[in-house]
Structures
1.
Amino acid sequence: MCGIIGYAGNDNAIPYLLTGIKDLEYRGYDSFGIGFIQDNKIIIKKDVQKIDYVITKYRLYEYSSNIGIAHTRWATHGKIEQRNAHPITDCNNEIAVVHNGMVENWDKLKKSLKNHRFISDTDTEVIAHLVEEKLHNGKSLLDSVSEIFNILEGSSSFVILSLKNNEIVAVKKGSPLVFGIGKNGYFISSDIPSIIRFTKKVIYLTDGDIVLFNKDHYEIKNVLKNDVIHEIHEVDLDINDAEKGRYKYFMEKEIFEQLKLWSKFEDYDTNKLKECISLIKDSKKVYIIGAGSSYYASLFGAMLLRSEGIESIAIEPQDLENYSRVIKKEDLFIIVSQSGETYDIINVMPLIKENKKIGIINVEGSTLSRLVDIFIKMDAGIEKAVAATKSMMNTMIIFTILYSCISGKDFKRDLKLLNLNKYNMIVPSVEEILEKVSSRLATESEIYYTGRDYAFPLALEGALKMKEISYIHAEAINLSTIKHGPLALVSNNSSIIAIVTPESEKLAINNLEELKARGAYIIGISQRPLEQFDVFIRTVDGGIFSYAPILFILQSLAYKVAVKKGLDPDKPRNLAKSVTVK
């Protein structure tokens, strides 16, 4: 997903745009570009380098303008080249376009645009020329984008800077956009972190919304519905979450922020869960839908519910079509998404439009948060590293609290135990072991993660983290099925990360013996050492939240391995924070 920010107002737009887009660099980091109006012409500066490089190269802070747009690109269409960086202009440089998403019918549209000069390989450029044609035929900017809205297929939110009237128009179609109302101007952005430094008053845009604004006023209309209410919301986010502080990388910062979040949950208000619990108990079956880390959290949540006799299954969104003929109207769906903009999930929501839906989502006002009947905020704050940490942890904690309310367990007692013991996880002795283990893993070409029962979703997540940021092939193997094929992968000195919980210890020991017999090097994560471990990483007791310190260790290991390999853990290659296109 690409990053977009625009500003029109009485202040100099350049500092707003540069500061804001740097807060969105985690959303797209292949290239960066900025467009603004100066001396009655649109000036474009862009390159395939990092934002700071481009700022220095073009001395961007020396410019002044009261209106402009900026974009950080994650390539989906067209190679990573300067000519494909945004903004993209029309033939006469009268409009500049930044785009988040994909125009699926770009090829057909391009062929229909006669007498136009295309200078990029992007699907975005057809938007510029389509609008150009409408404007040349006498249409206003607002009418022009309204008419092409239904022509564009796919998720295609875009923002246009127009020279004619010093205006910006933004179109919300699939990919997220939020409108900000500042003291001296207006903002448009693909994500709130880029504008909360400047304003906390926002309007969450919905599909079909078109916003036209200049430095003095704005207007919003919806081309799909006439009854859309555009309320102004006050954003409750901490600006410190958008800054690294004393940490070198956001991922390290966000891993350690989890320790503070555990304490916050001690005061969790369970009253807001009462309706959810009632829906869960009354449902015929509970489906939990998530993608990536959210899917692994969903597996964990489904296991908890099944332990209370509630029929529950976790599925990935692309598989929902396979279940469509067996879904009953009494079935409940729990939607898990950090961004609330996950395309895979949004795409299948029509299949369950008649069913009750609970959303465990981090971003209030996001598309999915408005499609569910009950919204539960993850409360993870801003998460800027591409690899999920806080959002995964908080989702599992929320599932545990739901489970506790259903089962009658005192989750606050166990949270206090977790928070009391957490300081034993960050003592020098544990840090030394993590450094030793990560040094070994950084030289590996493959790593295996194992666990039984509730530990298996943790193994899946640990392997995913290692793959995402260290580029080492990592695979999770359920210890209970290791003899059904996976054991063939184990050879002398194979690195095995074994997650052993007190509940699974007795059965796990036998499986670990089989691994040791084949020469495996076993890195044990457990509350107590086992003789089968070659290296022991001690975790701590947190009662029903004992998975939390294990997840912390798994995240820390992946982070340390990536850094030892000289990689940027915040921006893994080929990956974006939110998957908002097919």
2.
Amino acid sequence: MEIMHAFSKGIKTTQVEHQVISDFGIIGKITEIIGKLESLPGTEQLNYSELKLKPNIKDWIDSLIADHSTELDERPMRYLLSDFTSSMNTRSREDKKNVVGILFGKRIIICHSLCGSETITPAWDIITRMLDTDNVIRFVSFDAGEKFTTVHFWEKLASRFLIDWLGLARKRGFAYGGAYRLQSEMEEMTVELQLDDTQIDKFLESHPEFKNGKIILTSAINQLSVESVKIAGSPSYSVEDFLQLHAAEKFGTQPYRDQYEEINHGILPVLFKYIDEEKEVVRISEGTKQILVKKDLPDVELLFVNEYVDISHTYLNKLITRILNNEPLKIFHVGCELNEAPIKIGKTEFYSKLLIDDLTHFLIDFYNSTKLADVDLDHIFKY
């Protein structure tokens, strides 16, 4: 009979408890509860391939699903739970909250639960309390089938944390806002008025016509001032910042910008060497190479190089060769804002926003409008 591995960790603790469950009755009960979680209203279902998980998270999940040895390597699950809790925001990391990890065959469940700290014990007959729908704050499950892995996830209150941890586009997230949302149509657009608990009563008192499905405004409106734009699970953005973010997400570069910020935030140049390679960004220590970012944006060269991250000589030479050979090339440095109207030098397009003086602009325009017969002069201009 297949055994079940159960792990738990307090949100604010580093210790991860592990217990092997072999009792058929307990396994059956836990499996039944997990099934109820996955059928909660609002549960999302995706194919595993749709997620843009960080390389380490994906490696841990793949390792756990593939591990059929008698002696389970506990480290991937311990790393997974630690990463899951460390990525949460402050409110999610309050006391009396914990995370549970279940591994059963080719199935992984991670559950963020609100329970007393006394439940974090090896007495796994009470694990059902942790998984009870009344206590669950959010969960993610990975179920590996013969052809593909199915992912289920659910949150009581949607958060940017889970969207980012799973590597989902923000547009898939819950449309955050006030507790009460009144929807209407205006100029072929859906318009939503958001009210919180303190506003709804006042609104109903001042708009008795609402009972007839109408809102009568006291004055004509022909222009709306936009103070901010809010995207699912994220903070509010100014219009300028939103347009930049929207362009980056449409172009497919935003996840890499987030990873760039994350690398810079936790960079340790004294202990590790960081290399920007053609297909990935790696961290090297004592001869061991760890992949931090996998680049998979088609037709665009993504650069992470900076004062702490070196670019590999092979990759740099390849880029220079393509530029000098006048091959079509799109380049974007993920540490810069996106420029939807790229700077073009020959067939090379730079999609990063760059500060360029008037003289350089003149030289670029001159080069693009002039066919230089002298190869050496052409290369000098490109440099």
